[in-house]
Write a structure and sequence with these properties.
The chain has helices at about 10-15, 140-145, 190-195, 355-360, 375, 455-460; strands spanning about 30, 40-45, 55-60, 70-75, 80-85, 95, 120-125, 130-135, 150-155, 165-175, 200-205, 210-215, 220-225, 235, 245, 250-255, 260-265, 270-275, 285-290, 295-305, 335-340, 345, 345-350, 365-370, 380-385, 390-395, 400-405, 410-415, 420, 425, 430, 435-445, 450-455, 465-470. The strands form 7 sheets. Strands 21, 24, 26, 28, 29, 30 and 32 form a 7-stranded mixed beta sheet that branches. It has a 6-stranded mixed beta sheet with strand order 11-10-13-18-15-16, with helices on one face. Strands 1-4-9-8-6 form a 5-stranded mixed beta sheet, with no helix packed on it. By secondary structure, the protein is mainly beta. The chain starts with 8 loop residues before the first helix and ends with a strand. About 10% of the residues lie in helices and about 40% in strands. It binds CU-O-CU linkage and copper (II) ion. Copper (II) ion (CU) binds next to loops. This is Multicopper oxidase with three cupredoxin domains (Includes cell division protein FtsP and spore coat protein CotA). InterPro entries: Cu-oxidase-like_N, Cu-oxidase_2nd, Cu-oxidase_C, Cu-oxidase_fam, Cu_oxidase_Cu_BS, Cupredoxin, TAT_signal.
């Protein structure tokens, strides 16, 4: 893709150079879940997104920090969170990728009334699946998430894979002004019709780190979460071979991704095993190479003076699968879902442009089966009988990539362009390249109304969303 706003590589590097600490590997404030609910208070704060000499940036955040606190529970435990709203507008919290009861899904206007300014809402659900998840508002997400409202939600396995250290990197991409504040253009029609709000400042856990200390021979489990509105990451770990052990929280056969590049669309998560195979004193550069002409260095891994061990440990990497219902592929009902819209050159892309014109006039730019959000939110896109198996045959008839997210369920990605996928991975958000066809399969086993949308938040806001009813 060549349509991104150029990332200000120089400002990233300059900013990074002054910053030699390594706070990124330290866990975020962990909050044990016992009987009293943890409070997540959405409000305004300011933070050093860029290190000195830059000043603070005004953001919206949970409990005064972006990302918000890392919530950690054990699989099977009950999560209880009191959401409180100190913003000037209504909000909600959605637990991305977690299979919750419908009333706890946090979609304003669909599963609950939005939490008004000054209001509270108690979220309560059991953590059925272990894995890497996250939370964010589902109310004007393009601005609320874009201003910094999000945090990690980690559900620990009873028998995790053995590693020396566990690290969470929540990646974000901010569009900042020269004055170091967030650019106000949230919801711009140009962004919505193109690749979304691509920014110019990439952070790891709300900071721009220069280097992160590692040890030769060390094994790290790296939990990557893409919290950006629109940026897709393609991470390359210098000479290291990352091994993917989970995608969107769900275990997958451990494998090295094609070209050793870890691709992460908005909202997606990948758990990696990284064996630090460099020598003591080495430096490894982690870079983002997704947008070819705009490669930049994300961070350096700096090896300490001593080695932890001489060779990578031979500890197993396979995680225990979560209790997901296996779809019956042979008996599954197939549904065609076609995505249209967006700009290519001067053209609005659509199979039936005439029928879409009225919706375009009303502000929609993206369509699912020829209709935009205003229709899809009035009635479900599909109604699926509880307990039945389904295959969505999805087709991206646009010139843009889209990370398509389905709430309340995980699905298997069974085929791309008619060919079975090598890992038949479980996901909750699947990247579709332009013109790509992707088949996903799942059991509709969670009753309720579940959002189905593009997680480029500007695309979602401009019509690329609907909901699926399971009853
Ligand atoms: Cu991450 Cu519908 O959301
Ligand atoms: Cu999209």
């Amino acid at each position: 893709m060549t349509h991104a706003t150029p990332l200000s590589r120089r400002s990233l590097l300059k900013a990074g150079a002054a910053f030699a600490a390594a706070p990124i590997l330290a866990p975020l404030a962990a909050a044990a879940q016992t009987s009293a609910p943890l409070t997540l208070r959405a409000g305004k704060s300011s933070t050093a997104l860029r290190p000195a000499p830059y000043g603070l940036t005004d953001v919206w955040s949970y409990n005064g920090s972006t990302p918000g606190p890392e919530i950690r529970v054990k699989q099977g435990e009950r999560v209880r969170i009191m959401a409180s709203n100190a913003l000037d507008e209504p909000t909600t919290i959605h637990w991305h990728g977690i299979r919750t009861p419908n009333a706890m899904d946090g979609v304003g206007g669909l599963t609950q009334a939005p939490i008004e300014k000054g209001g509270e809402f108690l979220y309560e659900f059991d953590a059925l699946d272990a894995g890497t998840f996250w939370y964010h508002p589902h109310q004007r997400s393009f601005e609320q998430v874009g201003r910094g409202l999000y945090g990690p939600l980690i559900v620990e396995e009873a028998d995790p894979v053995q590693v020396d250290r566990e690290v969470t990197w929540m990646l974000d991409d901010w569009r900042m002004t020269n004055e170091g504040q967030l650019d106000d253009s949230f919801g711009s029609r140009h962004d919505a019709a193109h690749g979304g709000r691509i920014g110019n400042t990439v952070t790891i856990n709300g900071e721009i780190p220069d280097r992160i200390a590692v040890q030769s021979g060390e094994r790290i489990r790296l939990r990557l979460i893409n919290a950006a509105n629109a940026r897709i990451f393609g991470l390359q770990f210098g000479g290291l071979s990352p091994v993917v052990i989970a995608m969107d929280g769900q275990p997958v056969t451990p494998h090295t991704p094609p070209d050793e590049v870890v691709v992460l669309g908005p909202a997606m998560r990948v758990d990696l095993i990284l064996d630090m195979s460099g020598k003591a004193g080495d430096t490894t550069i982690v870079s983002d190479i997704f947008y070819e002409e705009l490669e930049y260095e994300l961070v350096k891994l700096a090896y300490g003076p001593t080695a932890l061990r001489d060779a990578a440990p031979d500890w197993p990497m396979t995680l225990t699968p979560n209790p997901l219902s296996e779809p019956d592929i042979a008996a599954a009902t197939r549904h065609q879902i076609v995505f249209n819209g967006g700009m290519m050159g001067q053209m609005m892309m659509g199979a039936d442009r005439g029928a879409m014109m009225e919706q375009i006039r009303q502000g929609s730019m993206w369509f699912i089966n020829g209709k935009a959000a205003m229709d899809h939110l009035a009635a479900p896109l599909l109604s699926l009988p509880l307990g039945s198996s389904h295959i969505f045959e999805m087709e991206n008839s646009t010139g843009w990539p889209h990370p398509i997210h389905f709430h309340g369920h995980s699905f298997r990605v069974i085929a791309r362009n008619g060919r079975p996928t090598p890992h038949q991975e479980w996901q909750d958000t699947v990247m579709m390249a332009p013109e790509e066809r992707v088949e996903i399969a799942f059991v509709a086993d969670n009753p309720g109304d579940w959002m189905f949308h593009c997680h480029i938040l500007e695309h979602q806001a401009a019509g690329m969303m609907g909901f699926v009813r399971v009853e």
